[in-house]
Amino acid sequence: MRSDDRQGGAHAGRALGQGQTTPTPSFPSDASRNADLVQRAQDLEGAQALLEEAGYPPGSLDVVFKVTTNYPYHVESAQIIAEWARAAGVNMTIEQLTWADWLSQVWVDRDFEMTMMNFFTIWEPDRLYYSLYHTTGGFNYRQISDPMIDEMAEQARGETDPAERLAIYRDIQQRIYDNALDVILWYRNGSIGAAPGVGGLDTVVHPNGSNLNFHRVWLDG
Fold first, then answer.
1. Taking the model in full, what pTM does it have?
2. CATH number of 6-190, picked from 1.50.10.10, 3.10.105.10, 3.40.50.10800, 3.40.1190.20
3. 128 in Cβ contact with 26 (< 8 Å)
4. pLDDT tens digits for 49-101?
């Protein structure tokens, strides 16, 4: 749907101090990032034309946008997106869910029309693109199933040439972008904090996006 203003939404996120704009899931300094991709501009007339073509004249399409209050900026972003959707003729309502309810309805039951999520610590490209976009990926709660992405993600896992592997991930990003499989808005800033008496903390998060390595950590007694 072209009524979602990717560029405007991304700049809104940046204005809220959440990070920087991005048209791709790869973080800004990632070697696998496809630098050729740019944010699409808003095109409300184009969105309205596509809706008409799909059989939805202005005001006839109702969409529920489920977001979790666990991330307040998701709610703020949804409010902005809903206004743009209404300008394009879509009746969008926002359903705010607790984290537990969001996980139950969206992640487990796949019961949603539109939603939002962030994976800002998944930096390793295999973990990122296989888990989120492969048909069998563990984080593929959107149920994306694209044979070309599946093939490329599997090929990248067995590619031993670093340059070729990076090229495959850039092609995956292009495929995601061309088919609008996700609307990527911005890359969210993240911070790792520790008490002053903690030393040796490895600031590189594990490829699973959740764990830190503590094998060199020491505590100042």
1. 0.81
2. 3.10.105.10
3. yes
4. 999 999 999 999 999 999 999 999 899 999 999 999 999 999 999 999 999 99
